[in-house]
Specification:
Order of helices and strands: HHHHHHEEEEH
Number of domains: 2
Helix content: 40-55%
Largest sheet: 4 strands, antiparallel
Radius of gyration: 18 Å
Shape: elongated
Distance between the termini: 47 Å
Length: 150
């Protein structure tokens, strides 16, 4: 398998919603191509892939799970109007890290830190604009989450 075929295979699997780990396993199983996760991630960053399929891949809940109470942290956040932050396991191309945020005011956005260390926000379509207090709380919560704080 040459580099062009390998990259086409990687892009196809990622567009189908495969995770990088699954693509790595498929390359090894189907084509006997061994790649480190980092090499695969670097190769994938250069490909034209629909990364939106990987942002919020949430499995459909089974009937038992659908009737279960929401997680305590989610319940607490909703009840107190807290800012909640998630860090994506799959980082968008051009970013060092990324994720989603739901502000205390109810506004939602995608956040990212670029390779220069700059923090950016992309408001979710149809979502309100975060307030200045939202932004301050977001920065504090993001720092706490990324440094392993409570």
């Amino acid at each position: 398998m040459n580099t062009e075929d390998r990259n086409r295979f990687i892009a196809q699997k990622l567009d189908e919603g495969f995770s990088l780990s699954d693509v790595q396993k498929a390359l090894a199983d189907e084509h006997d191509v061994q790649m480190t996760y980092l090499d695969l991630r670097l190769a994938a960053a250069d490909l034209e892939v629909d990364w939106t399929r990987h942002d919020k891949v949430v499995p459909e809940p089974e009937e038992d799970e659908a009737d279960a109470a929401p997680e305590p942290q989610a319940q607490e956040a909703a009840a107190t109007g807290m800012t909640t932050i998630t860090v994506s396991k799959l980082v968008r191309p051009g970013a060092s890290m990324s994720g989603d945020v739901e502000f205390a005011s109810g506004a939602k956005a995608e956040w990212f830190v670029d390779s220069m260390g700059r923090l950016g926000l992309n408001p979710a379509p149809g979502s309100g604009k975060p307030t200045e207090d939202d932004i301050q709380e977001f920065q504090i919560e993001l720092q706490r989450k990324l440094t392993g704080g409570a």
